Amino acid sequence: MQILPFYLLCDESGSMSGDPIEAINEALPELHHEISTNPTVADKTRFCLIGFSSSANVLQPLVDLSDIDEVPALAAGGLTSYGDAFRTLLRCIEADVAALKAQGHEVYRPVAFFLSDGIPTDDGWEQAHKELTQSRFCPKIIAFGIGDAEAATIGQVANFRAFIQQEAKVSPAQALREFASSLTRSIVRSASSIAADGGSGFSLAVDETVPGFSTVSLDKL
């Protein structure tokens, strides 16, 4: 069977407390429902949730969402730090790909959704990001920035698509609900495209525009 692994790296810094973190925690059950109740999607995808601030923790190891009752909630605290998140992601992907292949699956290049609401406080995160993106396990990275996140930094993180919250257009909570909806649609559409062609390939179906966000041009960064 062909499997498409999805990873969600979500900033859990202190500034995410209140409405922003609540918006994500309200939306994750919807993602769980959409995937777990759709056999086509559940069979073709695996999902992992990583929360990060000053350090990164795997909140939900890579799993078929139809096999669990609920997705763990995020909890805000600490400063915004990127390096440990990228190192943790790379370790997870290496282990997950090995495990999936040992089970006899073919594995598509993983997809990582990255969400941050601030400027990284760790000076060495670029090296961790370089090690991730130069690895043979490099995922396709879609990055979203809200709040104080800078377009240049979000564009540097992404290698596939990048978005930044539109100032004064929507609240962080509204933007995060749109982010979660986009994530859900992307996973469902991408998995469905695998099934449509009999598993011989897939199209990464990520929204080109998301309400409340401006697209960051990767070519200019």
From TrEMBL:
Matches recorded under InterPro entries: VWF_A, vWFA_dom_sf
Highest taxon of source: Bacteria
VWFA domain: residues covered: 5-183
Pfam families: VWA
Name of the protein described by the UniProt record: VWFA domain-containing protein
